[in-house]
Amino acid sequence: MIHEVDDVLKRMLTGGALAGSGIDVALEAPTRDWAARRNAPTINAYLYDIREDVTRRQRGTVPVTDERGAVLKRRQPPRWFRLSYLVTAWTKQPQDEHRLLSAVLATLLPREILPAEELPGSLGALGLSVPLTVAGIQSESRSLAEIWSALGGELKPSLDVVVTAPFPAFPEYEAGPPVTEGAAVRVRGIDGTLEGSPERRHRLPTSGGDTPGAGLPDTGRVSGEARRR
To answer: What are the Pvc16 N-terminal domain coordinates in residue numbering (predicted)?
Structure first.
């Protein structure tokens, strides 16, 4: 799932306001060594934090259906994780870096929700939209100054981009076959013998113009003897 979010973010950063600019997009840690090797204007999106969004955790199971809507399996709901990226611009002039960061804002701000059909692999298979926030309030325990200190570099203007993505939960549980017949009802006497009335069966409702009460049991034929018991 993480590498798929990387691909989605990198694809967005090379498009939008930056389409056709030829700006490189890197995912490496922006250390001093990396900055020294850089020889072209670059947008760096460094994944610095991964943690679960416990407010989205769900209990129970969700059904897995086929094209007809029949339940084939049941599985646990996915777990959601916040992937936090430190997005920075690298050029020779600060003004050019600020222009690149403005272009990143113009590209990502309209994409607050990423639809499932635009997501690759297991992300798209879940059929869930993925939220994205840009330059929001930082909720992680570590500060940006601590991150830059750990990277061995100097504090630099950056955008905090957070993608909250679902991770498929396992295992899946096999579901029983769908019900195709109504339940049968038999009436026994006190001595355990079957009554003489025929077996009564609940009729399943059908699609389309069904008659009122078609899925209900036929209770109008209960004999007086059965009622007395």
So the answer is: 4-181
